[in-house]
Amino acid sequence: MNNQSNLYDIGVIGLGVMGKNLALNIADNNYRVAAFDLDEIKVQDTVKQEELERKQFLKQSTQARILGCNNLSEMISKLEKPRVLLLSVPAGAPVDGVCQSLIEVGIEDDDIVIDTGNSLWTDTLEREKRYAKDFLFFSCAISGGEVGARFGPSLMPSGSLKAWQRIEPIWQAIAAKVDANTGLPIERFEPGNPVTEGEPCTTYIGPAGSGHYVKMVHNGIEYADMQLICEAYHLLNQGLGLSASEVGDVFERWNKGSLNSYLMEISADILKQADPLTGAPLVEMILDKAGQKGTGLWTAVSSLQIGCPAPTIAEAVYARALSTQKKQRHQLSQRLSGPSQVALVNTDKQAFIDQLENALYCAKVSCYAQGFQLMAMQANEQGWQLDFGEIAKIWRAGCIIRATFLQSITQAYQQDGELENLLMAETFAKALSEKQQDWRVAISGAVLSGIPAPCISSALAYYDGYRSETLPASLLQGQRDFFGAHTFERIDKPHGEKYHLNWSGDRRINKV
Ligand code: 6PG
Questions:
Q1: Would you tell me which of 203, 235, 310, 349 could form a disulfide with 239, CB atoms 3.0–4.6 Å apart?
Q2: 0.90 exceeded by the pTM?
Q3: Which of 21-25, 305-309, 417-421, 427-431 has the lowest mean pLDDT?
Q4: Closest residue (by CA) to atom 10 of ligand 1?
Q5: Which of 94, 97, 76 is nearest to 85 (CA)?
Q6: Ligand 1 in contact with 303 (CB < 6 A)?
Q7: CA 389/CA 408 separation, integer angstroms
Q8: Which amino acid residue places its CA nearest to atom 11 of ligand 1?
Q9: What is the pLDDT of residues 158-192, one digit of tens each?
Q10: Domains delineated in the chain
């Protein structure tokens, strides 16, 4: 905190929900903030909110901790040098718009500009180069939504180490915290009383682009995790005939065990909520068309580009896409037949609920294994040294996918920093081997009932794929050689030697 001068510690540009809450969080941690938004009302609103909270919760302090600025010129004149500016503007063109304006108002080359939006990681790479002569372009992907931003998000900073050293104390102060002994979040949602104890959920991820890549994969996992929970709801509701609120009760129970997570907790809450307008379960009144802003899609695309299987993440994106085709679904629901009877009707309900709990746990491990392997492959490609134990650690609190389970991932990487795939970690290999039969039973229940469960089942296909020493790619290579002379390797010859069979002629085999 800067007590010596009238200058401010950090500038926050963009005071939407995230920017405003970040500014308040930073102020709560005793840093002085200069704030600006093109919308004057948002500036006034942020300043007023700080004043209100200060008077209400910090009765002894009278000095304003947030200064509202009328323009960027004024803002940069109020900041301690080298300046730190945090951008909370929509990803894409607005980031470059603000960077350009900052250059015009005289930002200096050792000033730091931090993009906190959900930017595409390759854009971040580009920007670091583009603005290198004007200022230090840094990025910090943020997870946790508005409450996280206000009381402690998970922060994934990357870029220049010099910039990181300058901002690290602020980042550690505002980040979510985890109890070092239990690995559980320390949560206190009180203005003026930030959590100062525990391990902060932030760590330097690596060079430019790496933080946004890691956040992108976080979101890919988030998509899959959300869809897995939705499929479980669908099965329990449509398959087993439980009401929305009964499924909420099941989720509440699951949330006390190995499936404990923020997403499970809020899903239980949503399912138990009645619609204020009709009294029906709210979930039944919400139109079943899912939106998306694109980060899950980017993850799936990246996995395809790099050749790293992440089928559950891709299926989660497809599930959202299919959900939007409501008209076609309506028409086909009248025309295409399914099983004559829902297979789960006569099932022992409690037994199925327990099997599904195990299935969900296994699918979750499979989907995290996909996400972490994707990060590892990209890191290899880009020459990043990612510390996966640390990444799992900073996802234990503050972010949307926070879950007790992240502690086991942290431990798995602490035990073996070179772990190639989470499926190989002893703790997960053992748990999956024990529970996999229930996974299969749950999926057969879905298939025989005609209830789609693309994520739960693609996660099993991933697991089965990785535990198959032999795959039918041998036939596939034969097909490729048949129609395109693409050649194949042989199991009885050194790897790298290529063979072709003269399919349309004498059917002799030749080394190519
Ligand atoms: C987070 C969230 C956040 C946001 C996503 C939602 O980690 O805080 O991931 O970034 O909620 O952008 O994305 P969709 O609109 O694509 O679901």
A1: 235
A2: yes
A3: 417-421
A4: 143
A5: 76
A6: no
A7: 10
A8: 145
A9: 999 999 999 999 999 999 999 999 999 999 999 99
A10: 10-208 (3.40.50.720), 216-467 (1.10.1040.10), 473-511 (1.20.5.320)
